[in-house]
Amino acid sequence: MRQVYAVGIMKMEVFAMRLYLVRHGQTDMNKRNMFYGWTDADINETGIQQAEMLRQYFRQIPIDAIYSSDLRRAAHTAEIIAAGKDMKVHYDSAFRELYYGDWENQTIEYIEKNYKEELRGWVTDWKDLAMPNGEKFSDFYNRVAAGVDRLVEENRGKNVLLVAHNGALSAMLCHLTGAGMDGFWRFDSKQGHYSSVLISKKWTTIESINHPLCLEEE
User: pLDDT of 75-97, one tens digit each?
Assistant: First the structure.
């Protein structure tokens, strides 16, 4: 297991890679407070502005590779960032959000009204009980963890930018820091913000969480 060091603690070691974790820009479904894990919504005008600001910022940062979830809201954000560096984007479905099953495209209010018992059960046993016809959290976590392990192995010694979703980014941070599934609710990535992590064979160092450089969420 990697040891984890907080921001500001320096170790005398050459880090294997720096990973920038970016949450996609805002979508209309974000504004409506909806569950939309695998629903292929695109970013809205605010989301495009957020992505443009990310592009301007990362244009000055050395990046060797850009990865993204294959869902449109992440892919579009990544493509805007990549255009500022004349780079291609590598798409990977491993970095998709949790699939919500019957709760896809529904508001939280609708779910609270129409799935009271299912919601109560999921809140109590969220790691092992899937949403109706949805993806079990442990399967989601293992999918994301396997994807980020593969990304790290393929990009040692590089600076990599990855655009994904709030839940997927939380799962990555839990996995990379050794917090495991129990640490999932400790992390929350804001739309259009990024976190930075240094990863070596022995240590993971969190440099920043939710670095703000763009429009705030509405």
Answer: 999 999 999 999 999 999 999 99
Q: If you search the block for the tokens 């907080």, which residue do you land on?
A: 6
Q: What is the CATH code for 3-24+41-97+141-211?
A: 3.40.50.1240
Judge whether 135 counts as a catalytic residue.
no
Residue 24 among the catalytic residues: yes
- Residue ranges of the domains in the chain? 3-24+41-97+141-211
Pick the catalytic residue: 79, 97, 118, 135?
Answer: 97
- How many other CB atoms are found less than 10 A from the CB of residue 165? 23
Q: Would the annotation count 198 as a binding residue?
A: no
Q: What's the farthest any 2 CA atoms get from each other in the chain? A: 55
pTM as predicted: 0.90
* Mean pLDDT, range 29-34, rounded to an integer: 91
